[in-house]
User: Fold this.
Amino acid sequence: GTLEYKNKTLPKSKETLTLIKSLKDFEGVPPLVGLISDFYMASNQEERNSYLEEYKKILEKLDLLSHFEPFEQMVTLSTEVGVRKPDEKIFKFAIEKMKKGTPFYDVTFITENFDHVKSAKMLGINAIHLKGPDQEFGEVDNLINLVPIIRNLIQNCSCNKLHKLA
Assistant:
């Protein structure tokens, strides 16, 4: 519901990702953009690998894979961690894959799930509630409107920001 809905990308998904990745902080460094997703739970490594490949194919079909490469670093599935969002473990796991040692306060998490936003904020993560399909409210009503918010976050911070899309 953040980037896709009913197996179709939401309007402006790819454009928004491209624009966010083109932003620069005060040192000229672009934000890292990753993806955390709840997916099937696996009982063994073979099953886990199979689910990761299945998810990668889903991103390819949606034409979103190129925005989250290298896949192994930029995409985190509940399959890998054994917990679902908004469990603290999945956020820690994803952040460590993307950029070791990044504190929660240097992360921005975007999701249509309001409960996940509340939980992420309680952990000290910057979280933005995107109005999802069929939802009545959200801090941001469409993906493209995230760009100025994220620009403000990364340009008014003395650190590199790590941005996560759920």
